[in-house]
Design a protein that fits this description.
Elements lengths: L3 E7 L3 E8 L7 E5 L10 H7 L4 E5 L19 H14 L4 E5 L2 H9 L8 E5 L7 H15 L3 H10 L7 H12 L3 H16 L3 H9 L4 E6 L7 H4 L9 E6 L11 H15 L22
Parallel strand pairs: 3-4, 3-5, 5-6, 6-7, 7-8
Antiparallel strand pairs: 1-2, 2-4
Helix pairs in contact: 2-3, 3-8, 4-5, 4-7, 5-6
InterPro entries: AB_hydrolase_1 (IPR000073), AB_hydrolase_fold (IPR029058), Carboxylesterase_BioH (IPR050228)
Keywords: Hydrolase
GO molecular function, one term: hydrolase activity
């Protein structure tokens, strides 16, 4: 099913491209928050198992994808700005659930800490409570490439680190996607990496302390960058937290291979709709070529 697309104005400051997958049989809506350098296309695999159960909302950050033509890019956007955008979209689309991926988890936790009245549950994929040594090495290696707008080496770095467990097709798509980015997107990512490396990581624990809705943290068994162990540090702070490990998967979870897609589907639907079974025959799965995994 094709989504209904729209440009939504946020606080008279940003114009955000959105995709709304409507399901006449669904009574709940879920919004998906993507990671750095990503667009709505990065959730192509995830929408396939969510749309039969929910209304699904995707969006591009103001600096990325189909939003970037509608915004000025003189100043980088902070994670607090991204959290406010998410809160506005939650109200605009009457959202009940949130699902974030990777560094989209930062804005999601900040938003949830403000206790939006509509939200019932949230899933935080591939996000951890601290910056460990592999993640720090990855981010520090990327700073010079981003500052120089070195598209070739940014693509190589992503594919050799957090993306190393992706299929070769997706690695090629990653490289093509990174090569097409505008210079302001590299400036935004450089700002974001500096913010991550210098911020007080305890702010995420403080956010978790303030969140009242149930949270599910999902991490890949092989993900050394946002590891299972580091994610479980949230257990001491999030009062209603659950944790799930996707076996034989790295950072990109449901994009990496059919079994990981199936297991991620089971974990998410089991948490969001525990009374329902989860459909799908994994042996018949074929990945879409239209997804951009970053």
């Amino acid at each position: 099913m094709m989504p209904k697309t729209a440009i939504v104005e946020i606080c008279k400051k940003y114009k955000v491209y959105t995709e709304h997958y409507l399901n006449a049989a669904a009574d709940k809506t879920i919004i998906l928050v993507n990671g750095s350098l990503a667009t709505t296309a990065s959730f192509a695999q995830t929408v396939r198992y969510l749309q039969p159960r929910f209304n699904v909302v995707l969006y591009d950050q103001p600096y990325a994808g189909r939003s970037r033509l509608h915004n000025l890019h003189g100043r980088p956007i902070r994670k607090e700005d991204e959290a406010q955008i998410l809160l506005e979209l939650i109200e605009h689309f009457s959202v009940h659930h949130v699902l974030s991926f990777s560094w989209g988890g930062a804005a999601t936790l900040l938003a949830l800490a403000q206790r939006p009245r509509r939200i019932e549950k949230a899933v935080i994929n591939s996000f951890a409570a601290r910056i460990n040594t592999p993640m720090r090495d990855y981010l520090e290696s990327g700073l010079n490439f981003l500052q120089a707008c070195d598209r070739l080496n940014v693509g190589r770095l992503i594919n050799s680190t957090i993306g190393k467990h992706l299929p070769s097709l997706f690695k090629r798509f990653n490289h093509r996607h990174v090569s097409s980015l505008a210079e302001h997107e590299y400036r935004q990512m450089h700002f974001h990496v500096n913010e991550v490396l210098t911020q007080d990581i305890h702010c995420y624990a403080a956010c978790a302390d303030a969140i009242e809705v149930p949270l599910l943290f999902v991490n890949g068994e092989w993900d050394e960058y946002t590891s299972v162990e580091d994610a479980r540090l949230f257990a001491a702070h999030a009062r209603q937290s659950r944790f799930h490990t996707i076996k034989n998967a790295g950072h990109f979870l449901d994009m990496e291979h059919p079994a990981a897609w199936h297991d991620t589907q089971q974990a998410l639907l089991g948490f969001l709709q525990p009374a329902c079974g989860t459909p799908g025959q994994v042996r018949n799965l074929s990945f879409s070529r239209e997804s951009a995994p970053i």
